[in-house]
Write a structure and sequence with these properties.
The complex is a heterodimer of chains A (about 300) and B (about 260).
Chain A (H helix, E strand, L loop, with lengths): L1 H31 L6 H19 L3 H23 L8 H23 L14 E4 L2 E4 H23 L1 H11 L1 H6 L4 H23 L10 H6 L1 H8 L4 H25 L11 H12 L14
Antiparallel strand pairs in A: 1-2
Helix pairs in contact in A: 1-5, 1-8, 1-10, 1-11, 2-3, 2-4, 2-8, 3-8, 5-6, 5-8, 6-8, 10-11, 10-12
Chain B lengths: L4 E10 L2 E11 L4 E5 L6 H8 L7 E6 L2 E2 L4 H7 L1 E3 L12 H8 L8 H6 L3 H19 L15 H14 L4 E5 L7 H17 L4 E5 L3 H7 L2 E6 L2 E6 L1 H6 L1 H8 L4
Parallel strand pairs in B: 3-8, 3-9, 6-7, 7-8
Antiparallel strand pairs in B: 1-2, 1-4, 4-5, 9-10
Helix pairs in contact in B: 3-6
Classes of the chains: A mainly alpha (about 300), B alpha/beta (about 260).
């Protein structure tokens, strides 16, 4: 039982990281109808910028995280303004190919700037643990959950209560009608990219704390958030969070129990578990758990 | 005095098809102008030009001298509000949220204040909610204020859309077939709501496109009749009803 609870806890923390990545995908998809494959690149970039501030500049960790969040928001807006704003009205396929191209560019840029070796992020948590009600919990996981809860809480307050959040929801439903209300679709898209960059930076930082370290492979880890987004429903921010947690917990439980109970599946089966869950859920619910089926309006 | 809305010599083509051919008319403050014509006569094309969706190949459209051509957002900023033939509401949002979106262009608080939801932004929000309450009362939508639009009957959705357009506090209101698909009772109700709106906002100019002749003739101050994209007659409802070309366009002529 103790094992199980610890797995669920660690899985929730992993899931919270996936949720942050998945939310970034969803926010851009809702505003533009495009899956931004460069999201993983933004996640890695966030981790490296935070590392740059702690290690190379010597800034306190909090400042480094805030700098990474701000920098990724700016990079997100720049990608949208400089590259993708020219692609409005072009086939979605072309836009998606551009985001894949951007992913490779960012992935190559990172080792050019910071080298191929992995680095210590310089976070205050390291591999420290806390004992709580008989469980041994990693400090980095506790903080990850706290940071994700704050970020997601902030996002949903903005999204549900503010006028810009309402404008974002309106644009996602019907761009034509939103334009007729005098809503600037361009501003909504830019804000979406900024938000997406911010959550990507937080995902990057929380993914590379402690023993994991900052390495160029972070953008691949972030890819596991892809099933989280799909199974939550591409257009549902709440679904992204639930999908992220579900994938994180499933993956951790698999890593914990599979070697013992189903050894014939081989090593590292937990790595493909997110995709297995995605396939099964999509077979039952093709639009994801919380997605809305596309309705054709003549 | 120049008119509020001036549509002058507008020609719109799609490839080889001429949708509008030299259409001109004006609308004054406080006036209700109806645009009528058989199916495909170009009524909705006129609307789409005024609201900036289509850019005509020739002609000008101005609101108090400012050009309305080619930008939906600028049309909205200059005070043009519209309803859509097939409803342009946000179905998964509530009635109040839909109307708040109509207020979007009047909200001035900055982005960060809006995000943080305090200070000026909060006062502003309260003012907007008050003005929306008035609209909900005017259109008898009070009881549906927190309902999701998709759950409401069609007739009420049409009224919500009218409310959202009015929330923009427009100078010019474009109504695209406000009673299409409605039964006699609903049509009569819509006519009385439009009447109430005009009483509440005496300066509002309304341009209306509609098939339902009794509805049009009962509401309009002036009527423009189109046929195959060409204006064939302009006048009071009584004049239009006697106009031979209009009768021919609707009933067909022996060739």
């Amino acid at each position: 039982m103790t094992d199980f609870l610890q797995f669920v806890f660690a899985g929730s923390a992993l899931g919270a990281r996936y949720a942050l990545v998945a939310l970034g995908f969803v926010v851009i998809y809702r505003a533009t109808g495009v899956i931004n494959f460069a999201q993983g690149g933004l996640v890695a970039l966030g981790a490296y910028i935070a590392y740059h501030f702690t290690d190379r500049i010597g800034a306190p960790f909090v400042i480094a995280v805030l700098a990474a969040v701000a920098a990724c928001a700016i990079v997100g807006v720049l990608i949208q303004r400089v590259v993708l704003a020219r692609m409005v009205g072009q086939p979605a396929f072309a836009v998606i190919m551009i985001t894949i191209g951007l992913l490779f560019v960012i992935e190559q840029l990172i080792p050019t700037l910071w080298g191929y070796n992995s680095h210590n992020l310089g976070d205050p948590w390291g591999i420290k643990t806390v004992d709580l009600a008989g469980l041994t919990l990693a400090e980095r996981d506790l903080w990850t959950l706290a940071i994700a809860a704050m970020a997601l809480g902030g996002f949903f307050a903005f999204f549900r209560l503010s006028r810009y959040g309402l404008a974002m929801r309106a644009v996602a439903i019907d761009q034509e009608a939103a334009l007729a209300q005098g809503i600037s679709v361009g501003a909504v898209v830019a804000v979406s990219w900024a938000i997406s960059g911010m959550v990507a930076a937080l995902a990057g930082v929380t993914l590379s704390t402690g023993a994991t370290a900052v390495s160029p492979t972070i953008s691949f880890i972030a890819l596991a958030a892809f099933p989280a987004m799909i199974l939550g429903g591409l257009d549902s921010p709440g679904g992204a969070v639930i999908g992220g947690l579900l994938i994180g917990i499933t993956q951790t439980l698999t890593a914990g129990y599979q070697p013992e109970h189903a050894a014939w599946l081989g090593d590292n089966f937990h790595v493909v578990m997110p995709y297995v869950v995605m396939i099964v859920i999509l077979m039952v619910r093709p639009y994801g758990l919380f997605g809305v089926p596309e309705v054709d309006r003549a | 005095m120049t008119a509020l809305l001036d549509v002058s010599d507008v020609t719109l083509r799609f490839g080889g098809v001429t949708a509008l051919d030299g259409v001109s008319f004006t609308t004054d403050t406080g006036e209700l102008l109806a645009v009528i014509g058989p199916n495909g006569a170009g009524k909705t094309s006129v609307f789409n030009c005024i609201s900036g969706v289509y850019v005509p190949q020739a002609g000008t459209i101005t609101l108090e001298g400012a050009s309305l051509l080619g930008s939906r957002r600028r049309s909205a900023d200059l005070g043009v509000a519209r309803t859509f033939q097939n409803l342009g509401l946000f179905p998964t949002l509530t009635v109040t949220e839909n109307l708040l979106l109509g207020r979007h262009r009047h909200m001035r608080a900055g982005f960060l204040a809006g995000a943080a939801w305090f200070g000026r932004s909060r006062d502003e929000e309260r003012r907007h909610r008050e003005s929306i309450s008035e609209l909900l009362q005017l259109l008898r939508l009070d009881e549906y204020r927190d309902a999701h639009v998709a759950m409401l009957p069609y007739g009420i959705q049409k009224r919500v859309e009218l409310g959202r357009a009015l929330a923009m506090e427009p100078r010019l209101l474009l109504l695209d077939e406000p009673v299409a698909g409605m039964n006699a009772g609903e049509t009569e109700a819509m006519a009385s709501y439009i009447g109430a709106v005009r009483t509440a906002r005496p300066d509002l100019a309304v341009v209306l496109v509609e098939h339902d002749m009794p509805f049009v003739m009962g509401l309009a101050d002036r009527v423009v009749a189109l046929d195959f994209g060409t204006p064939i007659a302009t006048g009071t409802p009584a004049e239009i009803q006697r106009d031979e070309r209009v009768i021919a366009a609707y009933l067909g002529t022996a060739a």
